[in-house]
Design goal:
Blueprint (H helix, E strand, L loop, with lengths): L1 H29 L1 E5 L13 E6 L5 E2 L13 E2 L2 E2 L11 E2 L9 E5 L13 E8 L4 E5 L2 E4 L2 E2 L7 E7 L3 H11 L4 E6 L2 E7 H10 L5 E2 L8 E5 L6 E3 L5 H12 L3 E4 L2 E4 L2 E3 L1 E3 L4 E5 L9 H4 L2 E2 L3 E11 L12 E2 L2
Antiparallel strand pairs: 1-2, 2-24, 3-6, 4-5, 7-8, 7-24, 8-22, 9-10, 9-16, 10-11, 12-14, 12-15, 13-14, 17-21, 18-19, 19-20, 22-23, 24-25
């Protein structure tokens, strides 16, 4: 009798645990998932050690593409690949909608074409422009549809000041309780990562001391339309190199610029109608960020969801209690 009772008890708890695991799996797959911030690319909106809840339904639910995966893993399991590409489902999204400007978005790396779409590295970016917008980049400045894009207050750039001003600068930073982000010597100057408010405050105490450091975007200057689904664009010398990669990925054929023409599988392509929507996503930290300035347009199919709120924080500096259960802005 006692043996039967123990068996019934084990059966009950086994079913309960199995049901709980199944419920968690469904929630993580179709609704929300936790994402650990492991880089400073979105400082100070998101910091290393933040555990963020990603809402996968915010912009429409992207259905699974690689179903043969080990549950509760991403791309590896104890050092082994945790998925099989022998079965791949086509990309589908239920109830899609535009990403609002300034939302912080989680997306799959668009250039890792050797992996399945849903198994590529996860990245973060803030939506700066939507499908169909015309963007104009002029060095560090961005214009969307002719209007200057107002960056996040947390947007960080790399500045430099003369090395002989180091002690004065450190004194001001300590006095104003400003962080010393990425402080290092570069080419006989002192470089530091600051947002625009911090740079303004330092300039008030040390006038004409700061210079914006050069980067791969410092001298960039171009104007281009962000593709949207159904948009037909005439290809010319100004845009063919930018759009060639997108066309190649959509058509899964070789797109090669030659002379003044773009060739798709050896045939001249004079105009093209895009099959997907694209976004311009930026990092808040231009010093450490990887965003559309480096990756180009981000396809809608790569969008995972919205970074909604921080539910936990733990880093080398300990637990930041004030960040727990705060929303991502």
């Amino acid at each position: 009798m006692e043996m039967m009772q123990n068996k019934a008890k084990y059966t009950f708890w086994g079913k309960a645990i199995l049901f709980a695991l199944l419920l968690v799996f469904v929630v993580r797959t179709f609704w929300v998932e936790s994402f650990v911030i492991s880089s400073p690319q979105m400082e100070d909106a998101l910091k290393e050690g933040d555990h963020v809840i990603v809402n996968k339904t915010a912009y429409g639910l992207r259905l699974p593409i690689t179903p043969l995966s080990v549950p509760f893993t991403f791309d590896n399991f104890f050092g082994w690949q945790s998925y099989s590409t022998s079965l791949q489902w086509p990309y589908r999204r239920l109830g899609g909608c535009k990403i609002p400007v300034n939302d912080v978005v989680v997306f799959n790396h668009p250039l890792q074409t050797d992996r399945p779409l849903d198994k590529r590295t996860l990245c973060l970016g803030r939506c700066a422009a939507q499908p169909g917008d015309v963007i104009e980049v002029d060095g560090f400045e961005l214009y969307v549809n002719g209007r200057h894009y107002q960056v996040s207050p947390d947007f960080r750039l790399e500045y430099s000041l003369p090395m002989q001003w180091k002690d004065s600068a450190l004194h001001v930073l300590h006095q104003l309780k400003l962080p010393e982000k990425n402080l290092m010597a570069k080419n006989n100057r002192l470089s530091i990562s600051m947002n625009r408010l911090e740079a303004y405050l330092l300039q008030e105490y040390l006038p004409d001391s700061l210079l914006k450091m050069g980067s791969n975007t410092a001298n960039a200057k171009y104007k281009i339309t962000i593709p949207r689904k159904g948009l037909k664009i005439k290809l010319d010398m100004q845009n063919r190199n930018v759009y060639a990669y997108l066309i190649q990925q959509e058509q899964r054929k070789s797109a090669t610029p030659r002379g003044e023409k773009l060739f798709l599988n050896g045939k001249i392509l004079e105009e093209y109608t895009f099959q997907d929507n694209y976004y311009w996503l930026l990092s808040d930290n231009q010093v450490k960020g990887i965003d559309s300035n480096h990756l180009g347009f981000i396809p809608e199919r790569n969008i995972v969801g919205k970074a909604s709120f921080i539910w936990w924080n733990y880093s080398r500096e300990g637990i930041a209690w004030k960040r727990i259960f705060s929303s991502v802005k």
